Amino acid sequence: MFSPLPALPSTQAWDPALLKRYDISGPRYTSYPTAPSFHQGFGAEDFEAALARSNARPRPLSLYVHVPFCRRICFYCACNKIATKNTQLAEPYLSRLDREMVLTSRQLDRSREVSQLHWGGGTPTFLTLGQMGDLFDRLDARFGLSNSPDRDYSIEIDPREANVLTLRHLQALGFNRLSLGVQDLDPKVQQAINRVQPRVLTESLIDEARRLGFRSLNLDLIYGLPHQTPSSFAATLAQIIDMAPPRLSVFNYAHLPSRFAPQRRIREADLPDSDAKLAMLQTSIEMLEEAGYVHIGMDHFALPDDSLASAQRLGTMTRNFQGYSTHGNSDLVGLGVSAISRVDDCYAQNPTALADYEAALDAGRLATVKGIRLSLDDQLRRRAIERLMCDMALDLEALGHEFDLDATLWLDDALTRLAPSIEDGLIERHGSRLVVTPRGRLLIRHLAMAFDARLPKQAQERYSRIL
After folding, report:
1. CATH no., domain 1-33+375-458
2. Which residues are annotated as a binding site for S-adenosyl-L-methionine?
3. Which of 75, 203, 254, 306 has an alpha carbon within 20 to 30 A of 183's alpha carbon?
């Protein structure tokens, strides 16, 4: 693939009027086609067939495990979760997860390496140490986990529920990367989102992770939360930079109370306006780049020696349902309620309702409730969107060679839709090469939308705003 041009300083990219004009709603493209295109005509038998087909091209496996439980609800959260303080309620769920593992692994060649593993939620550290150990052992028994130093085994951590013993246990199990939720360090903001988390909790875990030798660590921040101001968020960023995490995700809060009930506890009057949010984004980019972080794209930042930054330089980075990822050449198997798989030429999704997930597995079948099998056009556009978002560049000639067709001719509609963005200096065309400019990096979701042939048929309001 074409190697992207080096980025210019972000100060050359900042044009508030232009950014506001392009700040529309659109997909994050963790998949293409996006989830609204999944349909109920795709079921468990279709997913089983996709799993079996994938053995013919035995790529490594990436496993995602969804643990939906949380002890308390954060008001901003849009994840699939169940609020409870009783860890025993997780036992029936872990039993169903094991049934799903058995049914899934039967279709797979056991020699395929599990190069990537991610536990998300909810709050995976809701589980007791014993439950985490049992789940890890079951995954190993069903799929055969890897001991390779190149494996990427990560877990999402709530610093309010984890301590030094938790990290030592996770390392002993085989995890080598951590993702810590922080969101903001300002006490007033924390109170408003029902997530009171003193800095010392986060800092002590980072220090211990460093001492234990975890290969990477990510912190999640959110801008646009109630009571945030550009100066208060800059203060949080300064403290985070002092902690020097190898990776950072700085997300834009999407306030969609009609879809996510906990968000109704947030007063809209307390939310920063669009000008303040743009100022927070600008501050984030400038402060992090000044501190030596590479702006990977969208909301991701990494230190130059982190594996994510290395993967981008090598052109091997990809996007999946956890965001940017270092392990692109793999089939993703999602386990648990609401989990989504990307296997062979298909996507398959489990039910979002726990009762439906349990009922399917109790009936002895995979819980797939919907999905899609990709056409050639879908596969070509997925590849184009992925490379554009990961490399900040797209080589149409190389794309055509990969699919044995004329990609420039095939994607003529996308190139036509890109014309205004070229005129506004968001992306440049050099023959068969498209190169995203520094200002275009901020609007990469909008540029990707030009390649989305299905978007005009979907309701835009279901998506968050780009900035």
Report:
1. 1.10.10.920
2. 64, 76-78, 121-123, 156, 183, 195, 220, 254, 340
3. 306
Gap between the Cα atoms of 233 and 225, Å rounded: 10
Give residue 15's pLDDT: 87
Spatial distance between the Cα atoms of 425 and 431, rounded to a whole number of angstroms:
16
Q: Which residues lie across from 221 on neighbouring strands?
A: 183, 250
Average pLDDT over residues 370-381: 98
Q: Which of 97, 158, 89 is nearest to 122 (CA)?
A: 158
- Checking if the pLDDT of 23 tops 90, the result is no
Annotated binding site: 64, 70, 74, 76-78, 121-123, 156, 183, 195, 220, 254, 340
Cα 26 from Cα 445, distance rounded (Å)? 7
Whole-angstrom Cα distance, residue 229 to residue 283? 11
Q: Which helix (H) or strand (E) holds 416?
A: helix 412-423
- Residue 321: per-residue pLDDT: 86
* Residue 91, number of CB atoms within 10 A of its CB: 12
SS (H, E, C) 292-315: CCEEEECCEEECCCCHHHHHHHHC
> What token pair was written down for 217?
């660590």
Which residue ranges make up the annotated binding site for [4Fe-4S] cluster? 70, 74, 77
Rounded to two decimals, the pTM is 0.93
d(CA 450, CA 20): 18
pLDDT at 463: 81
* Angle in degrees, 0-180, between the axes of helices 230-243 and 199-212, rounded to the nearest 10: 30
User: Comparing 302 with 327, which gets the higher pLDDT?
Assistant: 302
DSSP SS3 for 61: strand
Q: Parse the chain into domains and list their residue ranges.
A: 1-33+375-458, 34-335
